[in-house]
Structure formats: C-alpha cells, structure tokens
Amino acid sequence: xxxxxxxxxxxxxxxxxxxxxxxxxxxxxxxxxxxxxxxxxxxxxxxxxxxxxxxxxxxxxxxxxxxxxxxxxxxxxxxxxxxxxxxxxxxxxx
Length: 94
Ligand SMILES: [Zn+2]
Description:
The protein is mainly alpha-helical.
C-alpha cells in the first residue's frame, strides 16, 4: 500500500543561495553559507592573497596575474577554466 504521508521536510528547506565570487565577481550557486568563491581556482587565489597579506613582501607571486586572468575570462564570457583551456590549446597549436 502506498502512503501519501511520506514527505521530507528537508525538501522544503532547500534553497538556492546565489552569491558573488569575491575574486572574479561571477555569480554562483553556493552550497554553503560560508562560500565566497565560485570555484576551486578562485578559492586558491583567495588563499594565496590571504597568505600574501600575512607574509611580508619577499617573493613576487603571480597572484595578481591570476586575478587579471580571471577578469579577462569573465570579460570573454567564459569561466576561468574554459578560458584557461582555450589559452592552453592556442598555445599548443602554435
Ligand atoms: Zn570566481
């Protein structure tokens, strides 16, 4: 026999949490309340930036370049991954 009573309350609580990435500015669906970056890549950049902020200027990292690349990708209407892949294939062809 089927029971119509089986219903999960969790389903009702499900909600889309749209946030803006602090690194590339892209909007993304956050699965966590604390998420601030759209991707692992941006998360890595953010981590580097935080580490950079802590440590005194010694080594020049390419963090700034990564941020610029992320912006370029966004301007091109691509995700950073797509843009990076395109850059890579272009480099491979030549
Ligand atoms: Zn991002």
